[in-house]
Design brief:
By secondary structure, this protein is mainly α. Helix content is about 65%, strand content about 0%. It has 27 helices and no strands. The N and C termini lie far apart (about 65 Å). InterPro entries: AA/rel_permease1, CAT_C.
Length: about 650
Amino acid sequence: MPSSRKMILGHVMSGLCSKMNRTKQLPADVMETPLNRCLNTFDITLLGVGHMVGAGIYVLTGTVAKEIAGPGIIISFLLAGLASLLSALCYAEFGTRLPKAGSAYVYTYISIGEFWAFVIGWNILLEHMIGAASVARAWSGYVDFLFGGVISNATLSITGEMHEELLGKYPDLLAFVVCIVYALLLGIGVKGSAIVNSFLTVINLSVMVLVVVVGFYYANEENWTTPKGGFLPYGFSGVLAGAATCFYAFVGFDSIATSGEEAKNPSFSIPMATVLSMGIVTLGYILVCAALTLLVPYYNISDSAALPEAFSGVGMHWVKYAISIGAICGMTTTLFGSLFSLPRCMYAMASDGLLFSFLGDVNSKTQVPLTNLVISGVFSATIALLFDLEKLVEFMSIGTLLAYTIVSASVIILRYRPTLSPSRSILTLGSEMSVSTSEPTTPSEIVNMAGTLRVKYSWLTPVLGNCEPGSAVSTSVFIYTVFSGALCILIQVSSRDLSNGIWWTIILAVSFIFIMGACMLVIVAHHQNNEGLRFKVPMVPFLPALSILCNLEFMIHLNILTWLRFFVWMVLGMLVYFLYGIHNSKEGETMSTYSMLMNSSEAVKEKWGATTRTNIKGVLTRRKSSTAGERNAIIGDEDDDVP
């Protein structure tokens, strides 16, 4: 018996590191899916807008304007929108590379490895589950406010108060019912639910336009020059603190990338919908906040119902009811967005074997993962029933920011990884190879230069010359991320010492910045792989690196209890991964039979960063069989021209 246990333990621990770092192999046809590809650019844009414009504009704006930033909330939303756009562009590039459900989880699996992919996927599940629960709780609270607190008072009289710190004041039965009902509505099919979402989002945007027009008509510019602090009553630090809070109003943009597996034309729709939705939402938030703070002094803004009370104060009571309709529609679309994304992420992880296999089933009639949708609705409804809204929002943010950070890092890593790229003149059936003397003619020449040192940086050869292509960049990204986090912690903990010129804090800060700069130099010194990308994040590696820094800065501002809850959630995730996922991974099956499966038609399915020793016949066969248009949206395998 002891020997059996030893054998089992040896089997479990063997190759643990390689298992955790194995990357996802691309399917032969990334456009093939059991889901229904029926969403156009308009549908996906309104899905993103609807997910972002909900509880934030009707609940968050009043609190931030009154207690954190004052009228400077306009700048807060602008900064938060720009920071979110950096991550959104990274998502958009991945969405065109790989139009699959799972969003950041799939991108991480392809670029970094299985373990970090599971960490991201596990946190995305939490993000959308808590996102749905928090919006349902806000939806219930808003309806309760409109009815004068009748619902909460009746519930308290029946159930009494819950006195635990993490739990809500009372069990929110209305929020529970709302989650269940909306989950059932999403079960009708993606196109039907997209139509409902688009209709509600258009109503919400119309209400926002009404708020802006009427608000500016009754605007009083003296509210921005009040003796109680003027435009920036809390200073620029208040603006930054407001930006950290307002950032979470934009977290819904990842639902755009999640819809990639149901988009008709993902290589166009995903980046276009990302840019349009971010632009619409940022402009909408800025204009609504400007109208609100011009309509009423920031210190008189209502915490619970900022917009309705502001218009009631100037005698425009009818606008109050229009705003209420918009708020209900906006919160509904945000709830739709979370309940839309959650089951699809579960489906993606289960399809890869990292979650239980029954979660990978898709209903043949509706082409929706109905089992996941039921589970998502029940769990989200239970969380909404019991937990406090403020604690839910704090807990949601940490997983979101972690996902954004790793996706931004993944963009840099993949841009500098070498992939096989046949020459522009491709051999087709019945034709002869036609290659000029300037075109590559041998397998070693077919490999592009990505991940190798550029000529003008050849002076780095003694240090980096022996590194595998792409490995130096991957290491530099890791070091940059670590020291970015260290810099953010130093600024947070020792901000007073830095401002007072304490020597050791200045030396540390300068050292961290120098190391980060050196990492960026190493990255820039290498050739990029831009082959065939239909949408590219501009200014790589600088914009993704800035995104990493912004996301880490926001994470450092989270309180210690949020980090402790995150640790507990990750312990549960590690149990799932090491007891189930690592042993049932589909990539594990691929690795164990790799030598048998490595025939000429599959030779191109190398792990990322593979070198020149790939069967050229397999590459050309793969190219010959690939179709035009969307079916070429495979990472690093696109051709510029097909004669």
